[in-house]
Design a protein that fits this description.
The chain is of the alpha/beta class. It has helices spanning about 15-25, 30-45, 55-65, 85-90, 110-115, 135-145, 195-205, 215-220, 240-250, 250-270, 300-310, 325-330, 340-345, 360-370; strands at about 50-55, 75, 95-100, 120-125, 150-155, 160, 165, 175, 190-195, 275-280, 285, 290-295, 345-350. The longest helix has 19 residues, at about 250-270.
Length: about 375
């Protein structure tokens, strides 16, 4: 039986043609497709600015840099996320502080965030886990009351909304990833949206070694001269990748609709499988369903059964504070975030991607039923 992964990219002839056009052009990187992709993605989100970078981790790092996060600062993050969310804080010499999650949604809990705020707190990073937006009204109120920046890690949630507002416009800075298992792909890639043009300029300089102009800008002005004004990184996204992103973005609304339909089918077929509990949905949000996550006591047993049936389930995530690096360097341990730790013992990510059909979901559910 064919292997069913938990996620997979969808590429077609239009994507191939878009990349070939760039291969035959004069600009493979730092060319016109970069700004074109930025503008198209900003328009999709309804954000004034978008900055393209090499991956989602680079997007988070750029966001921390734009805010001036540095040594002595603290940034509040959830533990139920990929390590990059907290790692980006460490890259800037600051300290991530872990605030626990809501047990029903696995989104960062504003009550836990409030308890973590100190005079050293610089920002809050909210992670739209699995594709569902966080409680941005409560988080914004906390951020404003304490003079903090609010960052959204929206890598799971392009196209999701909260109270009718799009992810990409709900925080001061929002980061996205274009890894192959995400909603759209540039092979590797990332983006940051913001309404602050000064931050956008800082991030464009930061992604280019801290140099204020790129090669194409210098060619347009007929000059060779450039200056490095800060210590930056090579976080550029090539024109090849941006062309692929532009092509993929056109199909994103259709793919989001397919993901939501598949999630609805999961909900129907799992309704009678007693031990299995999908995560709770916020009626004020629309979900992007990067992941379809359930909780069940027999997680490891079911994982093995799915593996034996050639179904690629996964676990998202080991709480970040339990990784060896964080234990060793930040002194974190069990008991710090009990809700995330309890969830980690039970969560399982089931396959969901637009090319799937109802029969694929029925196959997954049948294996789960047999295993539990």
């Amino acid at each position: 039986m064919a292997f069913l992964p938990y996620g997979r990219q969808w590429l077609d002839a239009d994507d191939e043609a878009a990349v070939l056009d760039v291969l035959r052009s004069s600009w493979l990187t730092t060319g016109p497709k970069v700004a074109e992709f930025e503008q198209a993605f900003a328009a999709f989100c309804g954000a004034p600015e978008a900055v393209a970078v090499s991956n989602g981790t680079a997007a988070l790092h750029c966001a921390m840099y734009a805010l001036g996060v540095g040594p002595g600062d603290e940034v509040i993050v959830p533990p139920m996320t990929f390590a990059a969310t907290a790692n980006a804080v460490l890259y800037q010499g600051a300290r991530p502080v872990f605030a626990d999650v809501d047990p029903h949604t696995l989104l960062i809990d504003p009550v836990a965030v409030a308890a973590c705020i100190t005079p050293r707190t610089k920002a809050i990073i909210a992670v739209d886990y699995a594709g569902q937006p966080c409680d941005y009204d409560a988080l914004r109120a906390l951020a404003d009351a304490h003079g903090l920046a609010l960052v959204a890690d929206g890598c799971h949630a392009p196209g999701a909304t909260y109270q009718g507002r799009a992810v990409g416009t709900l925080a001061d800075l929002t980061t996205f990833s274009f890894h192959p298992v995400k909603h759209l792909t540039t092979a590797e890639g990332g983006m940051i949206t913001t309404d602050n043009p000064e931050w956008a300029t800082r991030m464009r300089t930061f992604r280019n070694h801290g140099i204020t102009t790129d090669h194409r800008q210098r060619e347009e002005h007929g000059t060779w001269f450039y200056e490095m004004t800060d210590l930056g990184y090579n976080y550029r996204l090539s024109d090849l990748q941006c062309a692929l992103g532009i092509s993929q973005l056109k199909k994103l609304p259709q793919w989001l609709s397919l993901r939501r339909t598949l999630a609805s089918v999961y909900g129907e077929l799992l309704a009678d499988v007693t031990p299995v509990k999908p995560l709770q949905l916020n009626p004020e949000s629309t979900h992007a369903y990067h992941l379809y996550v359930v909780r069940l006591p027999q997680r490891d047993q079911v994982f093995q059964a799915l593996k034996a049936a050639h179904i690629g389930a996964n676990v998202h995530y080991i709480p970040v504070h339990l990784h060896p690096y964080y234990r060793q360097h930040l002194g974190t341990s069990e008991g710090l975030c009990p809700q995330a730790e309890a969830a980690f013992a039970e969560i399982l990510t089931l396959p969901i991607f637009p090319q799937m059909d109802v029969q694929d979901i029925a196959r997954v559910v049948a294996v789960i039923q047999a295993a539990v």
